[in-house]
Amino acid sequence: MRATVDFAPLFRSSVGFDRMLNALDLAGRIPTADNWPPYDIIKTGEDDYRIDMAVAGLAENDLAITQERNTLVVTGRKAPEPQSAAEYLHRGIAGREFERRFDLAEHMKVTDAHFENGLLSITLKREIPEAMKPRRIAITSSTTRAEEAVPQIEAQKEAA
User: Fold this and answer.
1) CA 62 to mean position of chain CA atoms
2) CA-closest candidate to residue 110, choices 131, 91, 90, 126
3) CA dist., res. 51 & res. 113, Å (int)
4) How far apart are CA 149 and CA 155, in angstroms?
5) For 42, which DSSP code?
6) DSSP state, 62?
7) Which long-range contacts (CB under 8 A, 24 or more apart) does 139-145 make?
8) pTM
9) Alpha helices in the chain (DSSP H)
10) What is the pLDDT along the chain (160 residues), one digit of tens a residue?
């Protein structure tokens, strides 16, 4: 049994966080899905992340990675194996189809994907546009403005 969380008090005291709060509310309602393939999410720097997925039994061309807006989708579909004379007595390596979705924060971008020894590593970076980065605003006083205005007025008189 899951406890529900009421986000109403947060809506009253925050501005612009409604999308995040709605995502948290939705995440609490989604039933726990299949947990294959296993994966790790690692924070490697202030704005750098990596997702490592253990995809044993799949080859590099069996995997696809797409980023659709703020969702990263990793899919695996094993190519059909040609018929062989071998008979499996036990098949423990999964190699089954999967689709794993990761919700990304705004301005997250996949920068690299690397596959080696059955481990898929996806590198992500948060790249905030210059226009959205904090900037310092200069504060001027009324005396500074008055001093700046005098030379401009005199320059206009000389031009006339």
Assistant:
1) 23
2) 126
3) 9
4) 10
5) E
6) G
7) none
8) 0.63
9) 8-13, 18-29, 142-159
10) 456 677 677 666 666 666 776 777 776 665 555 678 899 999 999 989 999 999 988 889 999 999 988 889 999 998 777 777 788 888 787 778 899 999 888 889 999 999 999 899 999 999 888 887 788 888 888 775 555 555 655 556 565 5
> What is the distance between the alpha carbons of residues 58 and 99, in angstroms, rounded to a whole number?
13
Token representation of residue 149: 């205005």
Question: In 3D, which of 43, 51, 44, 45 has the Cα closest to residue 119?
Answer: 51
Closest CA to 76 of 108, 113, 41, 26: 113
In angstroms and rounded to an integer, the radius of gyration of the C-alpha atoms of the chain is: 27
Look at the domain 35-79+94-130 and name its fold. Answer: Immunoglobulin-like (2.60.40)
Q: Where are the domains of the chain?
A: 35-79+94-130
Tokens of 146: 């008055």
